[in-house]
Amino acid sequence: MRQPIRLLVVSVRFLLVAASGILASLPAFSESLEHCFVGNYHLEDRSDVDISPSVDGTLRWRKFDGTTGALHPQANGTWTSTRGWTKAADGMVVSFAGCDGNAIRFGGIAGTRTDFDVHEITFESHGTRLVGRLVLPRGEAKVPIVVLVHGSEHDSALTSYSLQRMLPAQGIGAFVYDKRGTGKSGGTYTQDYSLLAYDAVAAATTTRSFAGARLGSIGFQGGSQAGWVVPLAASRTAVDFAIVGFGLAVNAIDEDQQSVELQLSEKGYSRGEIRDALKVARAAEKVIASGFSNGFAELDRLRSRYSGARWYKDLRGDYTYLILPRSEAELRIMAPEFDWHTPWNYDPMPVLRSSRTPQLWILGGEDYDAPSRETRKRLQSLIAEGRDYTVAYYKNAEHGITLFEVDATGERISTRYAPGYFQLIRDFALHGTVSGQYGDAELTRPLRHD
Predict the structure, then answer these.
(1) Helix, strand, or coil here: 174?
(2) According to the UniProt entry, where is the signal peptide (predicted)?
(3) Taking Cα atoms as reference points, which of 185, 176, 167, 184 lies closest to residue 203?
(4) Bridging pattern class, strands 128-137 and 143-149
(5) Which residue range forms the structural domain that includes residue 324?
(6) Were both Cys, which of 77, 342, 417, 427 would link to 191 (CB 3.0–4.6 Å)?
(7) Nearest-angstrom CA–CA distance, 166 and 86
């Protein structure tokens, strides 16, 4: 089983599964534990560890070097850790000083929770009340501030986004908000990129107003679906930088096509077999893009033709696999719960070509949910044309820029974030550029930096 919740990550595929009820079955995190222990702690070895709420009564720790694990409560009041999103114990024991304290002992190293200047803020966008939080390092100095933009997740960013603390611990402010239809915000959940971009612009405007004299520079950061939203938002308001993780420079139909191709090619199927699989996927994509209103005859014809093919059992894509086993009647019933106004054929390239905002894109070579090959190629072509883009490519990273193991059943299990991932975000927010080495990331920088 791959990791259930990632930092700022929920792909279209994961989002569709969630809407089918899987996420709804996860128990809510204990409010008391969240209140007591969530925070960013500075340790005596001069590193920081962030503690965030998770599922099934657990906590999640993250360090800036990319290591992470789940914390499980024990009867003696301590917490034991399992590595990444695996079930393997990593030997880490953690204890807290109780609900009235700010102390932690993390793997034998003492630490203290870091205090930030925190402002809870309500603002409006297109008639919808949104709830946000501005988190700043303590002091009076000007700081860059990152507006954290959602992926496609349904959960509350105010609760789940650990960057709202990890960045301030590095001297960078963060504005986090629950997008419409999630958490404490009003409105209806949507995947309308344009509307979400206007919400992000409203968040940036609110940030400028509340940060006042402390605002140095300002920019957007987001992952996955935010790869479509962030550049749109940056085209509508003046910002100093934009950071996209595991996003796409193609549309959502191409996303599924490329996912099918990557998955089947890695399983060793021939080019001819993959071409046939892509035909089936294209028929499924047409059904979902139509709002489950047409395309069923072609889908049925191709399913009947290829259901006996050896590759059919491995045909998944980003969302094709949800369509394949269901009848027309079942799919039509599903239509209302997927009525999210998703612009399936949205072309992001005109916005990317016209951008004058320095942008950092962080991509994973093993990303099944948002395959990066064509996106990387397109971004590199923009760099060759003189655009101000930086691409950091982690060959072995999957969606979320996490590394993984493969278990005996062939399932990926995420183990940690790629080394250098969080440092990339920090340095680009601080300087509008990156320099040096970030783990094994392959960097393509704008021509002006060469």
Answers:
(1) strand
(2) none
(3) 176
(4) unpaired
(5) 252-338
(6) 342
(7) 23
Helices (H), 317-420: 320-323, 328-334, 349-354, 373-384
For the residues of 234-278, what is the DSSP string, one character each?
A: HHHS--SEEEEES--SS-HHHHHHHHHHHHHHHTT--HHHHHHHH
Q: Which residue has the tokens 């395959």?
A: 371
The pair of three-digit structure tokens given for residue 129, joined into one six-digit string: 């009340």
Distance of CA 138 to the CA centre of its chain: 27
**How far, in Å, CA of 143 to CA of 444, rounded?**
27
- Beta-carbon contacts of residue 354 (< 8 Å; ≥ 6 apart): 235
21 falls within a domain: no
Contacts of 297 (CB under 8 A, 6+ apart): none
Q: Tell me, yes or no, whether 99 lies in a domain.
A: yes
Q: What is the pLDDT of residues 235-283, one digit of tens each?
A: 999 999 999 999 999 999 999 999 999 999 999 999 999 999 999 999 9
> How many structural domains does the chain have?
2
Type of residue found at 113: R
The token pair that represents 238 in the structure block: 């003046």
Encoded tokens for 340: 């999210």
Looking at 290-316, list the stretches that DSSP marks H as alpha helix, in order from N- to C-terminal side: 296-306
Domain with residue 67: its CATH number is 2.40.128
Residues 445, 414: Cα–Cα separation, whole Å: 28
Amino acid, res. 40: N
What's the token pair of residue 288? 């979902």
Predicted confidence (pLDDT) per residue in 158-185, tens digit: 999 999 999 999 999 999 999 999 999 9
Contacts of 50 (CB under 8 A, 6+ apart): 39, 40, 41, 61, 62, 63, 162, 165, 166, 169
Closest CA to 263 of 407, 367, 402: 367
> 84-126: per-residue pLDDT in tens?
999 999 999 999 998 888 999 999 999 999 999 999 999 999 9
Q: Does the residue 34 lie in any domain?
A: yes
In the chain, the largest separation of any two C-alpha atoms, in whole Å, equals 68
Q: Is residue 10 predicted with pLDDT exceeding 60?
A: no
Sequence-distant (6+) residues with CB within 8 A of 178 are 130, 131, 132, 156, 157, 158, 184, 185
Distance CA 353, CA 16 (A): 30
- Whether residue 95 is contained in a domain is answered as yes
Final residue in a domain of this structure, among 303, 338, 373 = 338
